[in-house]
């Protein structure tokens, strides 16, 4: 047979094959173009061709050679179908017009039985696809394998029960229908395939996830798989591998519905991204996703240390970006409760970072003003944070202190907070005065309404009505607002406030006395009416 081996084929430097060029020419249009015009055996005995990027390497070429030497017949299995198909496309083995000898047609027709493949065979075929990338990246066969595999994943209680005989390529189907519902309702049954797909590299994982999204696969399960994939692939990996995997996962997370994401997982991926020094474009993407789920976060998530070579303790800029992302994503528009959760979270964060002596007033103010006023039901935590900040930053001038306190809504402070603020020397005098005036206003609004008692007791209660008190004190407040002598006026406000408290107590006592007196009067009138006697009417 040696006289028939007139062609030497070097495949990717892996192995050299001695073949008869005439046999290969009869099946391959590529070999036909290369050697079809050559005649004679002596002159062409030492021909040689070198392939540097032959898909599937030496293993695939050996399968091709066997196909050609067996007159266009071979056994096609899930493990070699991709090798044969890619090599056939590379060599142009379309049968020269004869479908019977077209290896491309044979492999594509064999794919029609993919629904009968076992789960293990599907995985083996997918691994072959990965090995043959990029040759199979846009392959119809790859897409067919992915469609079948992902369709199988949608039936977790059924997919793993496929069995197949390697000899007959037939399949058996076994499933206890009574247990199907319980399996589907069990979260662990929805994730049984996670470990099986960890072999996917970053090139193929992108194709797999995009196919899942296009087939409307459960987005929450996709997210869980991506998080598991990222964590598993980065564990013990080299920095370059972590960097590459993290970039791909962040891109894929952007394809998933925001409601399916988990705040905790996103923050963990973000920490890995920072550690691998990922570029700004990917940081912005993951921060946008984190911001959209900020209402799920806890204070521990936000207390990220400051970047390297920064003096302040926590990464305040990160929190500013996350809250802005939350607002841009529109989460607050879908639910008022979400916005309030973020407001409470931000206020707790303010209390944590306020004692940092390196935190600049501009950053602190930016945090306070980040959310609209209606997002907060109470400003007590904001007041607490301001108190801590001003205590640590005692060297601030009066104007700087005022700028820090400008966002404090006194109307939304509790009575206890207002009382504390009215005696707090850390705050500027104007803020303290405003607290005293707010206290006065709240006390007046809490005074009992006695207008309905006036017709019954003009002599008992004529000069201490609520209207007179409000009129007198309103005039005093207007005078206070016009004066700038902070120390004197603040003391006067405190004294008047103390007096108002006694007025309230006295007024409540008077009202109680009046109500008792009125009750006695009414009882006496009813008694008189009950004891009255009437004369009979005289007849005319």
TrEMBL record:
Q: Which residues cross the membrane?
A: none
> Where is each NPH3 domain found?
191-442
Q: Which GO terms describe its biological process?
A: protein ubiquitination
A Pfam family matched by this chain, by name? BTB
- Specify the superkingdom: Eukaryota
Q: Which residue ranges does the record assign to the BTB domain?
A: 5-77
Question: Key word Protease present in the record?
Answer: no
Stored InterPro entries: BTB/POZ_dom, NPH3/RPT2-like, NPH3_dom, SKP1/BTB/POZ_sf
**UniProt pathway annotation:** Protein modification; protein ubiquitination
Per its UniProt record, what Gene3D superfamilies does this chain match? Potassium Channel Kv1.1, Chain A
Q: Which family does it belong to?
A: Belongs to the NPH3 family.
- Protein name (database record): BTB domain-containing protein
Organism equals: Fagus sylvatica (Beechnut)
Organism lineage reads as: Eukaryota, Viridiplantae, Streptophyta, Embryophyta, Tracheophyta
